[in-house]
Specification:
GNAT_YJDJ; Acyl_CoA_acyltransferase; six-stranded antiparallel beta sheet; Aminopeptidase; seven-stranded mixed beta sheet; Gcn5-rel_NAT
Length: about 240
């Protein structure tokens, strides 16, 4: 028998598109990247554009709009800032970066920023939450975001992460008497780099909290999750890194 813990409710936003814009008719040659370090320690590229594969360019309101190739990352799996780097033979002037996030219900969030000088040099640590705005008039159809859920298997002592019904990861624990110890988490290779360990750990801890006042943790991924989410700190007894 399984116990459904987290159900996809349509409120999770994922990255659905992005673009660079610059004043004038020609953005020149452009190499750009937007990257983030995820909970599990992976550095992942969220959006990019390469001179070798320039993609779409259009003119809109006196600005060149350069489409970015994006990765469908879950917004709540991202850290508080992302690193933006831009190399171009055009002037450093009025460059703007736009990222768009959507959820199952079709609601959308837009992240937009004017790029400072740092973005053209070593890279700019750009805040995420501070620059997000709600877009209430999205006229594009919402892309089909993956259905993510966490299912508890108490008889076998693990939580299972499902993505579109397929097993994507496990959080394994052991119970001895009245004590629960988390031993490790695993994300399947084909699902890594998408921030899914955040969903697995968060969903598992939310359910564990309803059954145990504290737990012993031996998993470094869980430790990093709690460091980023201190509201879970009271749940762990002597959290540790391995």
């Amino acid at each position: 028998m399984t116990d459904q813990v987290v159900r996809p409710d349509g409120t999770g936003f994922s990255l659905a598109g992005g673009e660079l814009t610059v004043a004038g008719a020609d953005g020149g040659t452009v190499d750009a990247s937007v990257s983030a370090r995820l909970l599990d320690g992976f550095d992942v590229t969220l959006a990019s554009r390469s001179t070798a594969d320039p993609g779409d360019v259009r003119s809109e309101g006196g600005r060149s709009v350069l489409a970015l190739e994006t990765r469908p990352m879950m917004l709540n799996s991202l850290p508080s800032s992302v690193r933006v780097r831009l190399h171009t033979d055009a002037a450093e002037g009025d460059w703007r970066l736009i990222l768009r996030f959507r959820n199952h219900a079709g609601s959308s969030l837009t992240w937009q920023a004017e790029l400072p000088t740092e973005a053209f040099d070593a890279g700019w640590e750009a805040p995420l939450a501070d620059l997000l705005t709600i877009d209430r008039t999205a006229d594009e159809p919402a892309p089909q975001a993956p259905a993510v859920s966490v299912v508890h298997h108490p008889e076998d002592e693990y939580y299972e992460l499902l993505v579109d019904g397929q097993q994507a990861g496990l959080l394994v624990y052991h119970v001895i008497g009245s004590h629960l110890s988390i031993t490790h988490t695993v994300i399947e290779p084909t699902y890594r780099g998408r921030g899914l360990s955040w969903a697995l750990v968060g969903g598992s801890l939310d359910d564990i909290r309803t059954k145990y006042p504290t737990v012993m943790n031996y998993c470094p991924v869980v430790s990093r999750f709690v460091e980023k989410n201190p509201s879970y700190g009271d749940l762990l007894s002597q959290p540790r890194r391995v």
